[in-house]
Amino acid sequence: MSYWLFKSEPGCFSFDDLKNRPDSTEHWDGVRNYQARNFLRDQVKPGDLVLFYHSNIPEPAVVGLAEVVREGYPDFTAFDPHSEHFDPKSSVAAPIWYMVDVRYVEPMKKPVTLERIKTNPLLSEMPLVKRSRLSIQPVTPEQWQMILAMAGMET
DNA sequence: GCCAACGTTGGC
DNA sequence: GCCAACGTTGGC
User: Residue A27, class by beta-carbon neighbours within 10 Å (0-12 exposed, 13-18 middle, 19+ buried)?
Assistant: First the structure.
């Protein structure tokens, strides 16, 4: 079982949006970066746990927990000319982009802001801190425990 | 809204 | 295959 951090702009898709989906489950589609794609296609598995991170807002933060419920499969929004994520180079026969399905678990008792993450020496190796724009990131068990502790959620 | 980081594209 | 131009992300 692995840990991940998934980024989303809340104006586009928020943690509450996930909660309000049927079965609180949603496709994590629209990822168009090869490194993130590789994680989704090859490493993200059902049962894995996810830190849901809100980006591109005044106070970016980890706001909740989600669980992976379906492993990587072709992102069908890439096949749809009407989708804003349409990619003519991807096809059903040779898909380029992948998505997983995730389910709402619970909100953080206390959101863990980027500011707090950046000032914690034990989290300095997180891709988030190294200013990577990667939207799907691995999280180590140690980092996971620290983030949950900072959220007031002892494991 | 600005801009640095960085990934992608395309001419050569 | 190099690298400049360009586009996107995302913190501030």
Answer: middle
